[in-house]
Amino acid sequence: MLTPKERLKFILDGKPVDRPACICPGGMMNMVTSELMDRVQVYLPEAHTDARMMADLAKAVYDEKCFENYGVPFCMTIEAERLGAKVDMGTRVYEPHVVEYVLSTVSDYKKLVPADIHTGRAKVVTDAIRILKEETEGVPIVGNLTGPISTASSVMEPVTFYKELRKKNREAHEYMEFITDQLIEFGRAEIEAGADVIAISDPSGTGEILGPKFFEEFAVKYLNKLLEGLQKEKMGTIVHICGQMRNVYSEINKVKSDVLSFDSIVSMKEAREHLEERILMGNVSTYALEFAEPEKVKSLTRNSMNHGSDIIAPACGLGMKSPLVNVKAILECLEEEAHA
User: How many CA atoms lie within 13 A of 139 on its CB side?
Assistant: First the structure.
């Protein structure tokens, strides 16, 4: 029998496997729920700033048979916070979020002073990865990054940012170069600490918001700069894009990640038709995971699997009130299908 790490590695290498992998990377796709925290008596928001607690919560996701990976951190605010944005650390139910921007225009990006990667919450993440690397084996460790567009639009007001992609095009590119360089530094630190996979979530970099032209000019360009800037000695990379893909399939196919992950609004059957050669991940509705019954979750899991998903995962971030019985239903379904 394959270990979870072997199964994911085989999928990324294009080798045959017994069934799809079942992962939830972390980052935007935080897999920690209130019920899980009660089970292990380790809680957010405290675990956002404590490496031992962060590692223990990541372990619990696997130990409680939710998903077949460890993934840290559990939010998308570390990168913006490093650049000076103020963050509300959230509660046991709500994730951290930016409450105060740093810039009013892309023209001022040179005012940004990134914190040392070896301090603050960035260090908490890399320390947690080191703990996981030292104390576990056979389970892939996923390090997470917020994508370039999403980071850039967390440091300044998003509507202004999107307008200035066109109005201040040259300066917008300079700003994006700077942002992406900061992400490369964080990603390299995660890999050095022991991450097997880097997952990049860029929910603000959608084709629906940007349109095909700016999606390619900004989202694809800087995702690829980030991917190319990461060290090569890793198992693989995942890129998640939210929203509908219908008008940007040709552009998304230019993203040089090993895996493409999509929202539940995307038809996996349609995605497979447009991206025949790509490794696809997704896309069980997170609404269903929070509000439906386990059998509905299993039905959605089978649908994703039958329509070409190589790695089954929630479509976006799990609601922290999602019942564990629903979260566990994805992996249970995959194991049932494998033994049928």
Answer: 24
